[in-house]
Amino acid sequence: MSTRSTRRGTALVTGASSGIGAAYAGRLASQGWDTVLVARRKQRLDDLAHRLREATGTAVETLVADLSDPDDLAEVARRAAGDDIGFLLNNAGINGYGPFAGLEPELMTKVVDINVLAVTTLTRAAVPAMLERGRGTLVNVASQLAFAGALPPHPLPERAVYAGTKGYVVTFTRTLAAELAGTPLRIQVLCPGLTATEFHRSRGDTPVPGRDQSVHEDGGMPVDQVVDASLAALDTGEVVCVPGLQDPSLTDGLAEAELAIRTAARRGGS
Asked: How many CA atoms lie within 13 A of 28 on its CB side?
């Protein structure tokens, strides 16, 4: 068992039962963060909590919650507002892939509730206390599909609702970061591409069964590399982190293009 030299505070991680969430929680615990693990699968959370306690000596809480359920979301929001929460990773997400005209209304609502409402609600719960303490980190996980709106499916998935929700996460986080510029908070939107997780093994209506993590057949970037990219970007103050992107200046072009559009539109209307 390793011994922490400094207590970092508490990190709340949603979608912690597998994939990016589990890997990120492990990395934070290894850095001395206590953790609050949130997901739908109790056994997975209990297993991860046991591993983190044994490996790092940190304190680990588990919250079994479906973030599309209003009562569960409210419970997690109360915990996110705690005065010990110094790091919030909004990682939980589901895809609801499929033709839009055939997408089940219940699943569509669930995608929006988890990918948009939960992210916004938990951010709103955590940020005021972080501002009051003068420190805190927020990472919202989006997707490179947020930038793929006009691209046709095949080989990309049929993804209108999912990509739309991740586009929201990108815009919301970038705009919030601009609003809070000059404060001590670190804010990032993490936009991974295809990642070696079990994400594509379920549309999100039900969790992937089984006690052990698995990887979908499509493969992708190892989760540790995604976490590496996110943590490195936090150290350099990058708001938009796209793991694997060799030229980070491309993300700066987003703001430049937006300014050019607004400027041209104003001139056109004058």
From this structure: 30
